[in-house]
Design goal:
Layout lengths: L3 H23 L14 H4 L15 H8 L17 E4 L6 H9 L2 E6 L2 H11 L4 H22 L3 H17 L4 H7 L5 H20 L15 H6 L2 H15 L4 H17 L19 E3 L4 E3 L6 H21 L5 E5 L7 H8 L1 H10 L1 E6 L14 H6 L19 H19 L2 E11 L6 H8 L1 E12 L8 E11 L1
Parallel strand pairs: 1-2, 1-6, 2-5, 6-7
Antiparallel strand pairs: 3-4, 7-9, 8-9
Helix pairs in contact: 3-4, 5-12, 6-11, 6-13, 7-9, 11-12, 12-13, 14-15, 17-18
């Protein structure tokens, strides 16, 4: 139903122009196969990859590109085969392990963060889906009953009506956003004026209710006390107590991940500050992300129900895709971990395979220098679930910046990891490291570690956040032992 010339013109003027503009900004040496800019979010967050949000993870298609059996003008040979063993010493949330399971490749992941290991285990665990599903749904039902018994929703329902009516009058969608984009309205000035008007109506509205300020700190829960409303705190702790009564450890861990995902979405903050918290917000505010008045979430019930159903759906979907191979999650420091010894105690059969065959290669993305504090991004989960933090052992955290000293510490830390895990690798092992190496540290890291960089892939990356869509690039270093 579409003319061929029209289709050709569309692609020429849309995709080719985009590729040309990226090459102009990032250089002609881009491996365009690795842009994956044609993928939808639903593709890059398929099945268990979206069990829990995680900053700094690579998309599964990037792992698949290097682990599968295809070749092209950039990837000229096949590096991994079914039943091989791949290691990720900076496992994060387990993307490499999940893709390896999908492709019939054995895998091992190591991470210093206990919470990261919990997410990864939830993704790679084999569940009795019917039994796990019953337990998860029962927990949601119990939490709903607790919430209905202990809290009155009339205030929130009436507040939502007030907000909705105000938005229809002063921030109509999509007309308001269109006017901003056409510069017919000064968003800052207009939103401040109208929000002042809303606040007058809101203060008058509150006079009809006997609201109590119950924001006192709970002992041992500093973060939870600060970033959650009293009702949400109590609902979270109620669900947490339910977890203690579950016998199956895999299901308990899955429930912890669901609770953490729910807690992340229910923090008392604005929608635009969800990824990087600024100040607690407990009352309605003008939302820069949605161009209207929004209100912080008042209960966990909707999110908990949605994430529970979503989790059941995702683990069921992945159970149909995964192959019958091994995936082992190890909570340890990759600078000193003894993979053989740990596997020998945890999974003797897998140990025999790994010890006799050795590991075929690595696919990993270490932390970038001074970019993310990996423990802090899940501070709510560590506190809520009483998980020990090991911030001081992170390599290249945001808190240490990008100073010369921080770079030297980073080089030392990554090199120690590669030196340590090298003893578990085959002599001919292929090592792939994904790194946004703007500081050009990896040539020195490779040399110190006893590896040589045999190839570099330059991957264009589109930053898809709401208001910053500028492209940037990162490198995939292909290393082999000297």
């Amino acid at each position: 139903m579409v003319k061929l010339n029209e289709l050709k013109n569309y692609y020429d003027n849309t995709f080719l122009k985009k590729e040309d503009s990226w090459r102009e900004k990032l250089g002609e040496d881009l491996d365009w196969h690795l842009s994956f800019d044609n993928l939808r979010e639903i593709d890059t967050t398929k099945h268990v990859h979206r069990l829990h949000p995680y900053k700094g993870k690579f998309i599964p298609q990037l792992v698949e590109y290097f682990l599968d059996d295809h070749v092209d003008e950039f990837k000229k040979e096949v590096y991994f085969h079914p039943d091989d063993i791949v290691l990720d010493p900076f496992m994060g949330s387990g993307t490499t392990l999940v893709q390896a399971l999908e492709m019939g490749i054995n895998s091992i992941g190591v991470d210093i963060s206990d919470f990261n290991c919990s997410i990864a285990r939830a993704k790679v665990e084999r569940f009795n889906i019917d039994e796990a599903g019953k337990t998860l749904k029962k927990a949601v039902k119990s939490t709903k009953e607790y919430s209905a018994k202990n809290f009155n929703d009339i205030y929130y329902k009436n507040l939502q009506t007030l907000i909705s009516n105000f938005n229809k009058e002063y921030f109509p969608s999509p007309e308001y956003k269109v006017k901003i984009n056409k510069h017919l309205i000064d968003e800052k000035k207009y939103s401040e004026e109208k929000f002042e008007k809303f606040q007058l109506a809101y203060e008058k509205f509150k006079e009809n209710y006997n609201l109590k300020n119950d924001q006192e700190e709970i002992e041992g829960f500093h973060f939870i006390s600060k970033w959650y409303s009293p009702r949400i705190r109590k609902e979270l702790l109620f669900y947490l107590n339910l977890i203690d009564n579950v016998r199956d450890e895999s299901t308990k861990n899955l429930m912890r991940v669901i609770l953490s995902r729910t807690a992340r979405s229910c923090r008392a903050t604005t929608h635009s500050d969800l990824a990087t918290l600024v100040e607690p917000v407990y009352e309605p505010y003008y939302c820069k992300k949605h161009y209207k008045i929004c209100n912080p979430i008042e209960t966990i019930i909707k999110k908990l129900s949605t994430y529970t159903e979503d989790t059941i759906k995702r683990i069921k979907e992945f159970s149909q895709l995964r192959k019958n191979v091994n995936a082992e999650v190890i909570h340890s420091d990759s600078r000193v971990v003894d993979i053989f010894e740990i596997l020998k105690n945890k999974n003797p059969d897998y140990y025999k395979l790994v010890e006799s065959k050795k590991i075929d290669g690595i696919f990993s993305s270490p932390p970038y220098v001074g970019q993310i504090d990996y423990h802090e991004q899940h501070a709510y989960a560590y506190e809520l679930l009483n998980i020990e933090r090991k911030d001081e052992l992170e390599i290249g955290p945001l808190s240490r910046g990008k100073t010369k000293k921080a770079q030297e510490e980073y080089i030392k830390g990554i090199s120690e990891v590669l030196i340590n895990v090298k003893r578990f690798l085959k002599e001919e092992a292929n090592v792939f490291i994904v790194a946004n190496d703007k500081l050009n540290l990896y040539p020195e890291i490779a040399e110190i570690s006893g590896f040589k960089i045999v190839n570099e892939y330059k991957r264009p990356v589109l930053n898809r956040t709401e208001r910053d869509k500028q492209p940037y690039s990162e490198k995939i270093f292909h290393m082999k032992r000297l």
